[in-house]
Design brief:
Strand content of chain B: 25-35%
Oligomer: heterotrimer
Number of strands of chain B: 12
Largest sheet of chain B: 6 strands, mixed
Strand content of chain C: 35-45%
Number of helices of chain C: 4
InterPro entries (chain B): AAA+_ATPase, ABC_transporter-like_ATP-bd, FeS-cluster_ATPase_SufC, P-loop_NTPase
Structural class of chain C: mainly beta
Radius of gyration of chain B: 18 Å
Number of domains of chain B: 2
Largest sheet of chain C: 9 strands, mixed
Shape of chain B: globular
Keywords (chain B): ATP-binding, Nucleotide-binding
Protein name (chain B): Fe-S cluster assembly ATPase SufC
Order of helices and strands of chain C: EEEEHEEEEEEEEEEEEEEEEHHH
Chains: A alpha/beta (485), B alpha/beta (248), C mainly beta (378)
Shape of chain C: globular
CATH architecture of the largest domain in chain B: 3-Layer(aba) Sandwich
Number of helices of chain B: 9
CATH topology of the largest domain in chain B: Rossmann fold
Largest interface: A-C, 39 and 43 residues
Family (chain B): Belongs to the ABC transporter superfamily. Ycf16 family.
CATH class of the largest domain in chain B: Alpha Beta
Helix content of chain B: 25-40%
Number of strands of chain C: 20
Pfam families (chain B): ABC_tran
Chain lengths: 485, 248, 378
Amino acid sequence: MADEKEKLVEEREEKLNAERQKIDTFSDFGNMYNFKKDFNYSYKTEAGLTEDIVREISEKKHEPQWMLDFRLKSLDIFNHMEYPDWGPDISELDMDNIVTYVRPNAQMKADWNDVPDDIKDTFDRLGIPEAEKTSLAGVGAQYDSEVVYHSIQDELVRQGVVYTDFDSALEKYEDIVKAHFMKLVPPTDHKFAALHGAVWSGGSFVYVPAGVDVSIPLQSYFRLNAPGAGQFEHTMIIVEKGAKVHFIEGCSAPKYNVANLHAGCVELFIGDDATLTYSTIENWSKNMYNLNTKRAIVGKNGTINWVTGSFGSHTSCLYPMSILQGEGAHCEFTGVTFAGKGQYLDTGSKVVHNAPHTSSNINSKSISKSGGVCIYRGSVVINPKAEGAKANVSCESLMLDEQSQSDTIPAIVVKNDNIDLGHEASIGRISDEAIFYLMSRGLSEDEARAMLVRGFVEPVSKALPLEYAVEMNNLINLELKGSLK
Amino acid sequence: MSELLRVEGLHIAVEGKEILKGLDLTINTGETHVIMGSNGAGKSTLFNAIMGNPKYVVTAGKIFFEGNDITDAPVNERAKAGIFMAFQQPIAVQGISVENFIRNAKSTVSGQQQRIMPFRRKLHAQMDQLKMDKSYAERYVNDGFSGGERKKTEILQMCMLEPKLTMLDEIDSGLDVDAVRIVSETVSQYHNENNSILVITHHSEILQHLKPDFVHVLINGRIVKSGDASLIQTIEANGYESFRGQAE
Amino acid sequence: MAKDKVVVQYNQLPRPTFRWMKVNHLDLEPLAQKSVPSYTPAERHTGDAAVSFYTGRQVPDLGDFQGSNEKDLNKALDESNTGCAVTVGAGQKGAVWLDYTVSAAVPQITGQLTIQAGDHSDLTVYLIFDGDAAGGYVNFLTYVKTGEQAHVKISKVQLHGHHVRHVEHRYADAGKESTIDYVSAEIGAKAAIVYYKTDLMHDESNFNSQAMYLGNDDQIVDFSYWVPTKGVKTNTDIVTTGALLDTSKKYFRGTIDFLRGGKKAVGSESDTCILLSPNVHSISVPLLLCKEDDVVGNHASSAGQIDKDKLFYLMSRGFNEAGAQLIIVESNIRPVIDKLGDTDLENKVLQAVREKMQFCYKKGDCHAKCTQRFPHLD
């Protein structure tokens, strides 16, 4: 008996190991995300941004008047707001060329067999239906501007859990949506938040009632197929008192020669004693401007866990923010950013401590190679009310060659004395001593480097479910391929 | 007895400074050699040069292993050939567990993919012998380990990788009395007529277990005196000063 | 601050970040500039140092150096009321003491200090700022240039009274294998604003800066450092340590800028702040910018109250709480004070620290004579 059990364990581990090693020989892996589908759609707006376009989107979606008003107000803010005077250069992004709304040639379905073949094929190739069978409690799939598939396990529905596309949520739970929509990220926050408020479409809505523990993750996958388009999905998650949920988001797109824009918005409301884990594996194509806004507000003794892997996009500005509003609220941020050739990834984390005994722990890793630019930009604010707050920030940056760039730009503001704050950052390359040590055990230089890079990002891999850890591992191998000296 | 390692007229420079100045040493299979000498004499430099650390530049001389000239061979090729060095200050490798690390290394050195469960059983048995807690297999290599734990992990690697030539660079420093005994027993158990041991130490205690065949005194970049184990007593009694005259 | 209110911006961060945090620069109300008579500081020197005073501009072109505030910098360049040139020739060694005192007669000092050190020279400049006057304003430019293998140290003690705004722009260009050492004690002034840029463009040049501060009342202490490194094997070490009382505020903006080609550079910056009152603000923005892979860069900042275990330990040895607190604060800043290298100045700083910590009540002229290295305990 014991032998048989051992054999099973061994088989599982060997399979996983084989999976990890296979990738080294799988030269075509780079194309896994980069396949294009013919550009079919049932409706799309003209490129650019005008009041007519905003009205058109709202009308097509049969929205209530308040939402149209909200969109128009946001548009007005967008038109009057300055672009940020810090951060990456986005001058190549021309809003007049971005198509803000592309309705795919499909209605939202709850069965993959009802999803049109070319779209289903896309998600098949990304492994979404397969993952749904084995490791997810609910799945949402967005194609261009709209969600084409949504499902959730019956058991969760019985417990009162809601997981649906955002249009349906606006229809069925209008009061809840109205009370929360862009309350955490107001359109006045920054120019792209205003843009989002004006042209948002698609996205997911999750509601977990008090005390419900959703033990298996929910996942939303965002695929942008249309060239020159923007994706502006809105994700709202409300986790009531004592409830627990893990939400995973994945993003990818084929590469085009024109700029694509992603300006999504994620608003997370975490109640007292509740826990939300929000994981992201982002692999947008390298023509994407990823100007995304994510924000969480956390109640008494609640927890937000951010786990993020940022690999794709041409330019990213992404700083998930945690507002620790209730006493004892906690934030954990674990992130890795990997910038390769032509990429400018400005990422980080923001935390605001607003209540006593709140705590935050930020652990950020970045890798840059082949001229890629990684910026860690973070902020920690400890306000006067946050007595007994604890904050810890650690940023490590790895430079894999001399063409790349890696900057650390943290800012810390402390406004009360009863706090404990530690901040550490380091920049450097893989040490010659470490490579020598590993090589003295027989590994080649490339193997030694790859092993050290994998070890470097292990804290993030460890925080992800197995399948996603493998995917991230694959992405890293892909990025490292041929780049090691 | 066949020749395992031969070092001929070796000159080594580190950052432009000459440390070894014409060193000769031959080790046959099955032998145990000890290198003794004061701090800064060049003992660790010799080990790093044999292992192939690129920071240690060979300016003259040659190194042969099993008759092959390895003077220019990269470090990992030397490891595959069967040379192992237990580092004086082992490096911490974050994110890689001890077990994964050694299994990877074993697969590479032996050229055979190591199956997980048999490997784990063997690893655990070795850890038992070294009186290491099994939880160390799951921990990141040397990350947060005490000095003693790092040294035991080095010996654990030796046991698993089964090298032909083991070089122990002050393996006994930072170890308590019990740990020195456990480590030296493990090494002497591993030692047989098919492999050789080369030791740097400042303490005679470990040598009581390892029973060296040859003792070499290294002063100012050269071996100035070689002899059998009785040389250890001479050194203990008179220090290295008495050999200094022979260095010139 | 109301929108229409006119503000002056000091110490702009070389790479700005989130606007909402208000950390990219320091905003202060403009201060009326008075026309002032020309002024000569008290001076003495030893060794080979040559000192001369001048009017007008002797500072060479500063390239893209912006100073703490462009307008103030230009004023210090073009309308200085006190200029001083310190030089040591090749292979020479010397020390200079300069004491700039603000008074009712000279409430504002707009000054230049030009320091030039030849190859293999060794120069120490002790820079003392003190005195007080209503509307006091010190706007001071220090320029340092060294030859090869030179060593220039500036020990600065700033003990102004509470009406003075103290702004220093300091630019240094370190020659090959040269070392620039700054040791600073920022104790006085209503606002002490320093902006230090040091170019390490030459191989094996070094920059070390150690600064201590002790803020009280509504004081503002604002440190800004920018160190671009392009030479091979440069070394940068920036340490800032201090404590805040009452409603004082501290800003630390440190930027180590590893430029491409500056191989084997090592740079570290650290910012430690002890928070002694509930209403203090501690702001820290330690930047590491890196375009070169063969470097080691580190920064660490920490802020917090006095370690309770340390306090307990000291009180178990018989110190009262105030005494124990002082010992802990002192143990943090003493390593900097001890490096000033002039016992008289060290004692002045210690005395000022103890006065602020309300430990020594003997305000007056006794601190010059005070050699008490441990607090008097009740």
